Structure formats: structure tokens, C-alpha cells
Amino acid sequence: MIRALAVLALAVVAPTGVAAHQLVVFASVDCEAVTVEVKFSNGRIAQKGDVRVLDGENSLLMTLPLGRDGTARVPLDRVDHSGGLVIEVGTGSHDNYWIVTPEDIAQKCGS
Amino acid sequence: MTRYFLAASCAALIAAAPALAHYGMIIPDDPMISQEDGRSVALTMSFSHPFELDGMVLDRPVAFSVTHEGRTTDLLGGLQDATVMQDKGYTLDYPLERPGTYVFAMEPQPYWEPAEDAFIIHYTKTYVTAYGDDEGWDTELGLKTEIVPLSKPFGLWEHNVFQGIVKLDGAPVPYAEVEVEFFNDGAGATVPDELMITQTVKADANGVFTYAPPSHGWWGFAALNTADYTLPQEGADKAVELGAVIWVHFEDWTGQ
């Protein structure tokens, strides 16, 4: 499942060229929400950017701004996460993604 | 006749007791785990002569831990018995909850080596990075003895240099001797002379050493020092060899 979603995500997120430092996108699940954390590979927090949430079928579910603390919160009850989620983050000059699999959500929700 | 006898005797002695280097080993299935690889890393622990793939008994370690984002977690209870290189070793599947560098470290029980009339304790560690975040790659654990990386201990191309500082009790060891050996797992590497199995470099006055491997794969670096204490063996005090071991994976260069 992870690899299948990765192929989808790679098709969605076209590389924008090699940057000296990369954007590191990570998302964790606590059953109620997906918390997105974004920083650069040099450790600096990304303070501006757009977070795009797509479902497993590549449909855009929502877009929200990245907070100045480099995080964003996606409530699970506001998105159809049955097929997993792809979290894309773009800061203008850098972008990257994280895949939330159905297994990630199931593990955290104990189902 | 005499010459033939001596030659045969020497050959027998060399065959019986080659100067093989011992290595504690922590080998992950992948030193750079991406999100596409899954959410965990599979580790294999052993004690061996890695070039010859000659295993030795690794009794249950004194300590086995992981350090991530400054926090160290005891993993000793999670080790699973396994056979590694035809001898006793361990495996562990460890979930990687967050990005960053995970440093796995092992302190084995003292290993009595009759051929050297000494005990061997190899403080062994391996660095694994998760999800594209290499923060923490230069983490120093504060082990009794350790090699603190000056080069990232993953994400190196073959022929890149690896540099580290040899430390004992937290202080650099000037001119420390560092043995380097290839984990010849499936590689089929051969040597023109036994001297090539284990290569040796010395650190500089600041304890810094440098090595560039000839190929991709896992390379073990073992900085050896003698402890300032002894351990008893059959009523006698015996020296203790302290090894600071780090395993580094070099990647196959993909360019022309």
C-alpha cells in the first residue's frame, strides 16, 4: 500500500529541481487528526507554505496554510481517509510529501 | 627435510591461528529508511570475522539501546535469538516513529579470547536515518569508547572518505589504531594476501582517522585500546581490549 501511494504521490508532486537543502515533510496520526510537521534538512522550521491534502484516488480534499511553527493539523473527521492520504507541502521553492496509509491510521486508532 | 618440516609447521600454525579481526556487528536491512520502505528497520546483531563470514558466539549483550533526538531507550528485552553466520546472534525489528537519525548501540559481555590471552569488549554502534531527515547523524553517545563520526555515517558513495574521532572515556585518542574490514556478505571479495582482510589506519594527534573504501557495502571500523582494568580468568588477571566499533554503509555509485 505504501509503495502504491508513493507512485501516486510521485506522479502528483513533480520535482522542482535539486535544492541545496531539502524540505522534510512528516505527518503523524493520533486518531483524531493528522499533524503535519515541515522543516528544511538544515533543521530550520518552514514558516510559510501550503499544505494540500489528497485522498488515495488523487482527489484534492483540502488546502490549508502551514503555521509559523511549521505544522498544520488535518482533522480526520473532515476528510475521507479510507484509502489513505497524501500530504503535499509546497513552500514556493521547495516541496515534498508524506503518505499517511490506512494502516498508519488503523494502528493509531486501535482498529 | 628440515626446511620442508619447518615450512609445513608454519603453514599449519598460520592456518590454525590467522590474525583475524573480531567485530561486533549491528547491521540494519537499510541504513536510510524512506517512507516507501515502511515504518521500521530490521537489525541483525552478531560477533564475527566479517570478511570471512566467520561467526562467533554473541552472548546476550549487557546493553542494547537506541538514541533518537537525545533520548536513549533500552531495547535489550526486545532482542530475538537468531543464528547469524552459523553462530549465536540476535535480531530486532524496531519501529521508526519519527524522522531523524537513530543510533543503535550494543555493549556485549566480555568475550574471552584465549588466542590473545585477553578479553574483548566491542562497543558497537550503527546509525540509521529515517524519512529523509539526517538530523543527529553526528550524535555522540558517551560510551566508554566510541568513534564519533565526522562524516555522515550513511549516505556515502563508495570511494568517499569516512572520518571519525576515536574517543576513550570521552577524550580523543591520539594516534589510535583503527582496523577496517569489509562485511563480505554475498560480495565474494577475495584478497591477494591475508594482510588485506583487515586494513589498518592510525588516527592523527587529535584522534581523527580517515578511510576511503574501494567498494560499496558495509564497512566496519574498530578502534582498539587496552582498558585500564583487568578481568579475572581462571584465577589470573587478564587484559581487556576495548573496541569502539562503527558500521558504515557506502552506496554504489550510479554515475558514469
From TrEMBL, chain A:
Signal peptide positions (record): 1-19
Keywords, ordered alphabetically: Signal
Protein name listed in UniProt: Nickel transport protein
UniProt organism field: Roseobacter cerasinus
TrEMBL record, chain B:
Residues spanning the signal sequence: 1-21
Keywords (A to Z) from UniProt: Ligase, Signal
MF terms in GO: ligase activity
Domain of life according to the entry: Bacteria
Name of protein: ATP-dependent DNA ligase
Species the sequence originates in: Roseobacter cerasinus
Lineage: Bacteria, Pseudomonadati, Pseudomonadota, Alphaproteobacteria, Rhodobacterales
